[in-house]
Amino acid sequence: MTLLNHSLDAALPRPSACPGLLRIVAARDGGICRIKLPGGRLDAAQARAIAAAATACAGGVLEATNRANLQIRGVRPGQEAELIERLLAAGLGAPSAGGDDVRNLMLRPAAGHDPQALL
To answer: Which of 7, 37, 66, 76 is the most exposed place for a label (fewest CB within 10 A)?
Structure first.
């Protein structure tokens, strides 16, 4: 999917006003971009990519949500496409804008660390 298609998806009506990676929602301090982390996992390269993108395209503020997502706050106007491109290049985000509307599962913080437990 090209970035142009992501821009078109962002203009379509959606079932909720919650932000996502491909649908940045306006707030008083700039846009909010929410990154869903599958299973709440984030590797070091992805963490560095998020930090670099937040610094380059937004105010550098990151928030952890109750559903194991990360939010980048203060996305500057005109920087949305670059932010999305950087995050997708890091392997973050759903392949389509509809993936932003899928609810996450709540997991225990230790999920996946105990070899005897099922994930």
So the answer is: 66
Least reliable range by pLDDT among 46-50, 70-74, 115-119 = 115-119
- Tokens 């070899």: give the residue: 115
Q: What is d(CA 52, CA 115) in angstroms, rounded to the nearest whole number?
A: 33
Distance CA 35, CA 2 (A): 19
Q: Is the dihedral of CA 89, 95, 96, 100 positive or negative?
A: negative
Return the DSSP state at 71.
E
The candidate with the shortest Cα–Cα distance to 50, out of 75, 78, 18, is: 75
Return the exposure string of 107-116: e unless at least 16 CB atoms fall within 10 Å of the residue's CB, then b: eeeebeeeee
pLDDT digits (tens, 9 = 90+) for 6-30: 444 444 454 567 888 888 999 999 9
Hey, which bits of the chain come out as E strands?
Answer: 25-27, 30-36, 61-64, 69-75
